[in-house]
Amino acid sequence: MAAHEKNHDYHLVDLSPWPVVGAIAAFILAVGGVVLMHGGGQWLFWAGVVAVLYTMYVWWSDVIREAETGYHTPVVQIHHRYGMILFIASEVMFFVAWFWAYFDAAFFPDEIAQVGRVAFTGGVWPPQGVEVFDPWHLPLFNTLILLLSGTTVTWAHHALLQNDRQGLKWGLLLTVLLGILFTCVQVLEYSQAHFSFSGNIYGATFFMATGFHGFHIFIGTVFLIVCLLRAYRGQFTPKQHLGFEFAAWYWHFVDVVWLFLFAAIYVWGSWGATIAQH
Q1: Which of 13, 44, 78, 212 could form a disulfide with 32 if both were Cys (CB 3.0 to 4.6 A apart)?
Q2: pLDDT tens for each residue of 41-71
Q3: Secondary element (H or E) of residue 206
Q4: Spatial CB neighbours of 38, under 8 Å, sequence gap ≥ 6
């Protein structure tokens, strides 16, 4: 039955092979990863990567076609928004775990019950011998980049609502460029680190928190690049643009997480290092 012939608002679409194909692809990727980590060949792992990426592309292409043919009714759009909200909430809890690990080590560096921790930290935080980053150089620059990118993606959103196609394209393009710049600056920052991930509780918590955030920036940048390509193809309308709206939500989410990372790990951590030196 065609979408315009439906007499309900619910999300009943045509049968799709992609959930099964995606599950098989994920299984191949997982098995390939295990084989790779045990010294085996790489071909199964990369076959799984290609299969997962292909499934993502064709499945999301189907979702776009569903939206264009009228399947995404107002009720369906509300449900999609609920799903995105829950996804971002799960991402928040993911970062809570890394903040918890960082603050647990920072507030209790000399906990007697954690004998190994005392040996690694010397009973102080940041641990003895760790030279932390100056928050007012590259970290501050990256903070300004993300704050600016939050304004450009908001500009793009408001331009779309006003049916300003050029404003939408320029806002998205600038946001993508700022996201790429952030990643380049973070790579430069990591190259200048005076501590490593292994054998260092500060380095482990630092790289896990900021590194996963950097990965989210990469995913968000890809998300926005797809939206930019769709904008050039004229696929968004002021009333039908869930894909772009979700990309903007996700980008604002990584912006906020970075502000917490900058305040907690860079600024507060550097203050702790200054106090320890005196």
Answers
A1: 44
A2: 899 999 999 999 999 999 999 998 888 888 8
A3: helix 201-232
A4: none
Q: What tokens does 94 get?
A: 């993911």
Q: Which DSSP symbol is given to 58?
A: H
Polymer length in residues for the chain: 278
211-255: per-residue pLDDT in tens? Answer: 999 999 999 999 999 999 999 999 999 988 999 999 999 999 999
**Prediction pTM value:** 0.88
Contact present, 266 and 133 (Cβ < 8 Å): yes
The token duo for 7 is 């007499």
SS3 196: coil
Q: Please answer whether residues 130 and 202 qualify as being in contact, where contact means their C-beta atoms are separated by less than 8 angstroms.
A: yes
Give 113's pLDDT tier (boundaries 50, 70, 90): low
